[in-house]
Amino acid sequence: MELTHIPAGQAAGPRTAVVWSVLRHELDRQPDRSLTVVDVGGGTGGFAVPLAEAGHQVTVVDASPDALAALTRRAADAGVGDRITAAQGDGDALGELIAPASADLVLCHAVLEVVDEPARVVESLATVLRPGGAASVLVAGRAAAVLARAVNGHLDLAAALLADPQGTAGARDTLRRRYDADRAVDLLTAAGLRVEQTHGVRVLSDLLPAAVAEGDPQALLALELAVAAQPPYRDLATQLHLFARRPL
Predict the structure, then answer these.
(1) What CATH number should be reported for the domain holding residue 68?
(2) Which of 31, 119, 204, 206 has the fewest other C-beta atoms within 10 Å?
(3) How far apart are CA 142 and CA 36, in angstroms?
């Protein structure tokens, strides 16, 4: 089977361009290999289907049967149903679904802020990675959430989120925790992973009026990519993307 690059259209949106840029670089390190990929919490296949289209074998682990059903339909429509496996389960049960040291790449996007035990999930990620394999981890950023609430006039929620050890704004918050870069790095390091890159995702996209963002999307994309790895801009992003590796 001939491998291809990730479709260029996947990098068109400033909300995901940084993540795709990092993933493409990792895939290009092994251009002639079909990688074994695990997407934890991969839902309907926003990342899994393009990776399968590029020639890689992807297992999506998700707790939602509806999301997995939509994934299966999407994969079939894209002609990659044979390269995608849907597995129902939670991130902390990953070790029961995926063989140890079997994955070249594990994606864990928007999961660690909602699970019961994030440390256990990260330990599972490290376990299923082969030595030298990589993990793409995307988490909600704490600073952006504080600023967003304050700018929108919810000063009480901003203060609560700032003071809370987990970075939440009370019982009605939809997330159980948020991260700053140091805390996220510490979580991955404790599981034996070596963090190689940390980027901000949606540094500017969620701050700009829609008319501005839609008026010159290519300029916004270029600016997002330019500031993604630069503190303090990186640390104000809606999400933080960490790329880590299991040591050989």
Answers:
(1) 3.40.50.150
(2) 31
(3) 32
Q: Is the peptide bond before 232 cis (omega within 30 degrees of 0)?
A: yes
Q: Which residues is 119 bridged to in the sheet?
A: none
Q: Are residues 190 and 166 in the same domain?
A: no
Number of domains in the chain: 2
How buried is 72 (Cβ within 10 angstroms: 0-12 exposed, 13-18 middle, 19+ buried)?
A: middle
User: 190 and 221: one domain?
Assistant: yes
Helices of type H across the chain: 17-28, 48-53, 65-77, 94-97, 118-128, 142-151, 155-163, 181-190, 210-215, 217-227
104 belongs to a structural domain: yes
**What's the whole-number mean pLDDT along residues 81-93?**
91
Terminal CA-to-CA distance of the chain, rounded, Å?
Answer: 28
Structure tokens at 231: 């503190």
- For residues 123 and 222, membership in a common domain is answered with yes
47, burial (CB in 10 Å: exposed 0-12, middle 13-18, buried 19+) = buried
Amino acid found at 133: G
Quick one: which of 22, 231, 244 has its CA closest to 137?
244
Per-residue pLDDT of 129-181, as tens digits, reads 999 999 999 999 999 999 999 999 999 999 999 999 999 988 889 999 999 99
As a whole number, mean pLDDT of residues 199-203 equals: 95
SS3 content of the chain, % helix, strand, coil (to 5): 40, 20, 35
> Reading across the β-sheet that carries 129-140, which strands appear in turn?
84-88, 57-62, 36-40, 103-109, 129-140, 239-245, 194-201
